[in-house]
Amino acid sequence: MEQQTKTSGRPLGAALKPRQLTMMGLGSAIGAGLFIGSGAGIQAAGPAVLISYLVAGTLIILVMWALGEMAAANPDSGAFSVYTAKAYGPVAGATVGWLWWLQLVVVIAAEALGAAGLLATIFPVLPVWLMAFVFIVLLTAVNLTSVKNFGEFEFWFALLKVAAIVGFLLVGAALLFGWLPGVQSPGLSNFTGAGFAPSGFAGIATALFVVAFAFGGTEIVSVAAAETAEPAHSVKKAVRTVLWRILVFYIASIFIIAAVVPVGSAGLKSPFAAVLDAAGMPGAATAITLVAVAALLSALNANLYGASRMAFSLAERGDAPRLLASVSKARVPVIAVLASVAFGVVTVGLELAFPDQVLPVLLNIVGSTCLLVWTSALLAQLALRLRADREGTELPLRMPGFPGLTVFGLVILAAIFTVGFIGEDSRPQLLSTFALVALLAVANWLHQRRKAPVFVDASEDDKQPALVD
Fold first, then answer.
1. pLDDT tens for each residue of 120-131
2. Angstrom distances, CA of residue 80 to CA of 150, 299, 366, 378, 381
3. pTM score, two decimals?
């Protein structure tokens, strides 16, 4: 895993700052899945959902360490797709890259519609379709200007989410300790007796499959590393400072929610608002809704960035139309950005024309993509680290506890997949995603076979360079 930065005819920019990469890593894991969707995990497992979050959080720490090690050694806009290709061949790498791209462009549509729908509950001034279109246009403009503008935009988005979490934790702690005047502390009665795990191990396992997806998006840090001025330094700082904060924010938030909101309560539909209401905070529902809108728009912005960079990388490797590798004077892959957002715009249009018929199907197909991406990252790191150690290669960042912790991460993923295949609701989603992977793998295999290899005559070595992997 030699140190190198992707450079082609015109390289991408390198204007992202370490603080932006760090906040991006922190903010990417704090989304609507935490602010709105965390109640589903508590409903499934009760307060014992904390165990599910600990397991899922441990998995993300291991995946981030693995990605950080590879990104520090070889910063590339294709990230885990490139690393998988280096470890297991171009077909595997292209399959992972296209799978991730498809996930992001589908999710872009879902996030635009979701943010517009939430905002419409507070300010029903504009129709949902128009607000969704405005969000997409504005964030496309942000992505088309320069990576510096994107990084600054994401920095403040992430800072808003972090500030909201910190404020929530302070209010929640004051509520539990009985420090709020006129408000009685709910205590820890929800954690005692059978109430801690009302559905037993089955509930914890079911919640594990649900909560794992809340951490989706953290892998974008490895993509953004290629556009930082000092990739090795920035990645090391991001990995070392972000991981424990993500875990603390999640575990502390879920602990407070589980302590305040009982299983079966209607408040679990918007758990953060339920806690703030219990603390006597006026306007709690509106505040959390606005934060959730910001979280969705932040995710849309980041996903558009990630999709465009993956498309750019695939094009550079000859696994996507070459036009997608064209770069503007601002060092932005403009065509890749527009191609990625176009899919989202079309999906939004189809969803509005045929409500609940298009988007749910697409989301079901790509729903488990992040699990496969994390699996590919750990498998690639396992192979590349063994290769680097065998060859005596120095690495800027080394994942601790190798290979045991890498294998442990793969075991956790195997457990999540097992739980998913057992569950009647999750099994179709996994089967759909695996079918998509199979189709992409076949298509990429056929594409690789059609690639015309360049044979260099030994006597012409001084006239044209040989191809290298």
1. 989 888 888 889
2. 21, 19, 17, 9, 9
3. 0.89
327: left (phi over 0), alpha (psi -120 to 50) or beta: beta
Question: Smallest Cα–Cα separation from 375: which of 67, 89, 71?
Answer: 67
Token reading at 34: 């935490």
Check residue 229 and report its DSSP letter. Answer: S
Which of 403-438 are b and which e, b meaning 16 or more Cβ less than 10 Å from the residue's Cβ? Answer: eebbeebbebbeebbebbeebeebeebbebbeebbe
Strand partners, 228: 16
Q: Are 446 and 89 in contact (CB under 8 A)?
A: no
Residue 354: the pLDDT is 84
Assess whether pLDDT exceeds 70 at residue 372: yes
Amino acid at 375: T
Distance CA 181, CA 63 (A): 44
Distance CA 142, CA 148 (A): 10
Contact between residue 313 and residue 6 where contact means Cβ atoms under 8 Å apart: yes
Sign of the Cα pseudo-torsion (279, 284, 287, 293, in order): positive
Q: How far is Cα 151 from Cα 91, in angstroms, rounded to an integer?
A: 31
Residues 242-254 pLDDT 10s:
777 777 888 999 9
* pLDDT tens for each residue of 222-270: 999 888 878 888 888 887 777 777 778 889 999 999 999 998 888 888 8
Nearest to 289 by CA among 164, 159, 180: 164
Residue 235 and residue 229: Cα distance in Å, rounded?
Answer: 11
Grade residue 452 by pLDDT with cuts at 50, 70 and 90.
low
Question: Nearest 5°: phi and psi at 49?
Answer: -60, -20
Judged on CB neighbours under 10 Å (0-12, 13-18, 19+), 180 is: middle
List 442's β-bridge partners, or say none.
Answer: none
State yes or no: pLDDT of 400 exceeds 50: yes
Q: Which segment, 147-151, 403-407, 456-460, is predicted with the most confidence on average?
A: 403-407
Give CA torsion, residues 452, 457, 460, 462, to 10 deg: 80
333 prior amide bond cis, ω within 30: no
DSSP 259-285: HHS-TT-GGGGSHHHHHHHHTT-TTHH
* Axis-axis angle for helices 284-316, 334-353 (nearest 10): 130
- Rounded to an integer, the average pLDDT of 21-32 is 75
What does the pLDDT look like over 182-202, one tens digit per residue? 899 999 988 987 788 888 888
